[in-house]
Write a structure and sequence with these properties.
This protein has helices spanning 3-8, 11-34, 58-72, 80-103, 110-124, 142-152. By secondary structure, the protein is mostly helical. The chain has a domain at 1-76.
Length: 153
């Protein structure tokens, strides 16, 4: 993200609503699980067990939200086709990794670990088409963190 794009993007406003919605869904899920409000909606198994109410679907909603907000602020991809293609490529890599994990789940081993590593790699594939997604805001950079810690001493 360039300095001008960083200036145009209000970081608090960018994350406020997604953070509040995520918090509300987390509280709702906690209440649903504690009060046993139906396993289709609130499943107590690890990862939610495919329950409808959960935070796992939030990247599907908030991913495009953040992409549109960053694009409007001038931090969009250089080529939208390449960005969309790399996103589809990432999805394919993630699915392949997940299939490998599922197939080897009965007897976990090196292949299961490989599946998780493949999924991790898939998370970085979109950077091929949209490099500014990996740029940290100025207040998160290494130098500013060092300056903050030295001021605390």
């Amino acid at each position: 993200m360039t300095d001008s794009a960083s200036d145009k993007t209000n970081k608090g406003g960018l994350i406020l609503w997604p953070a509040l919605i995520t918090f509300a869904i987390t509280i709702l899920r906690l209440e649903g699980e504690l009060h046993h409000w139906g396993s289709v909606w609130f499943n107590t198994s690890a990862g939610g067990g495919g329950a409808i109410v959960g935070i796992s679907w939030l990247p599907i909603v908030f991913g495009p939200y953040f992409a549109l907000r960053l694009s409007k602020a001038g931090a969009g991809p250089a080529n939208y086709r390449k960005a969309f293609g790399s996103t589809l490529g990432a999805l394919a890599v993630m699915v392949l990794g997940a299939i490998l994990v599922i197939v080897t789940e009965a007897h976990p081993g090196v292949l299961t670990l490989a599946g998780f590593v493949i999924m991790l790699v898939g998370a970085f594939v979109p950077l091929i088409g949209w490099r500014s997604l990996a740029q940290l805001p100025r207040f998160w950079t290494h130098n500013s963190l060092l300056m903050r810690s030295s001021n605390m001493c």
